[in-house]
Write a structure and sequence with these properties.
Number of helices: 2
Strand content: over 45%
Distance between the termini: 30 Å
Shape: globular
Number of strands: 10
Order of helices and strands: HHEEEEEEEEEE
Largest sheet: 10 strands, antiparallel, barrel
Length: 176
C-alpha cells in the first residue's frame, strides 16, 4: 500500500509555487525556472495512520517545455521498492494548474489532477483506492516553494477505517 500511496503522491513533486502577484495568463517563468533541473528529495512517509514511518528518497530531472508547462522525470525508492515518475505540470490559467501521472502504479481513480495556487503553495486534491481495504480515499499534495533551489512536498489522505485525515509524510527537495 505504501508504494501505491507514494506513487500517487509524487508525480506532482516538481510543482513549485512562488508568489506571482497579478501577472497575466501565463505561469510565472520563475516558477518553472525554479522547478527546472536536477533535484534530490528525502523524507519520511507512512502507508497508514497506524504504520511506522519509513525513509524515502527521490531524484527528479525536470525540464521546461513551454512558459506554462514543465515535464517531470525521476524515480523514488522506499523500503527497497523503486518506482518511476513521469508526467507534467501545466498552468491552465491564473492560479489554476493541472498535473498528469501514470494511473496504474498508484491505484488512482483519476489521472489528471486539478490544483490551485495560493502564494507559494499549490494544493492538488485527488481520489485513490486504498490498496488493502479497496475503499476510496481522498488525498492532498501540498507543494511549497521554499527558495529557488528548495521545495517541500507534504502528503495527507483519509484513513479508510476512521475517515480522518492523517499525514502520510513530508519530503524536502534540494537542487543537486
Amino acid at each position: 500500500m505504501l508504494k501505491h500511496t507514494i506513487c500517487a503522491s509524487f508525480t506532482a513533486l516538481a510543482i513549485l509555487a512562488t508568489p506571482v502577484g497579478n501577472l497575466p495568463v501565463f505561469a510565472s517563468e520563475k516558477i518553472f525556472e525554479n522547478m527546472s533541473g536536477k533535484f534530490r528529495g528525502r523524507g519520511l512517509v507512512r502507508a497508514s495512520a497506524k504504520a511506522k514511518k519509513e525513509a524515502i528518497r527521490c531524484r527528479m530531472n525536470n525540464k521546461v517545455a513551454s512558459p506554462t508547462r514543465i515535464n517531470l522525470s525521476g524515480s523514488c525508492s522506499v523500503t527497497g521498492f523503486v518506482f518511476s515518475l513521469r508526467g507534467f505540470i501545466e498552468q491552465t490559467g491564473g492560479n489554476s494548474y493541472r498535473a498528469n501521472m501514470f494511473r496504474s502504479l498508484a491505484n488512482l481513480k483519476q489521472n489528471n489532477f486539478s490544483g490551485k495556487r495560493s502564494g507559494s503553495r499549490i494544493s492538488f486534491n485527488f481520489s485513490a483506492r486504498d490498496a488493502i481495504s479497496k475503499s476510496n480515499v481522498r488525498a492532498t499534495i501540498l507543494l511549497n516553494s521554499v527558495s529557488s533551489d528548495k521545495f517541500t512536498v507534504q502528503i495527507s489522505r483519509t484513513d479508510p477505517e476512521t475517515k480522518k485525515v492523517f499525514n502520510v509524510g513530508k519530503l524536502d527537495f534540494a537542487k543537486r
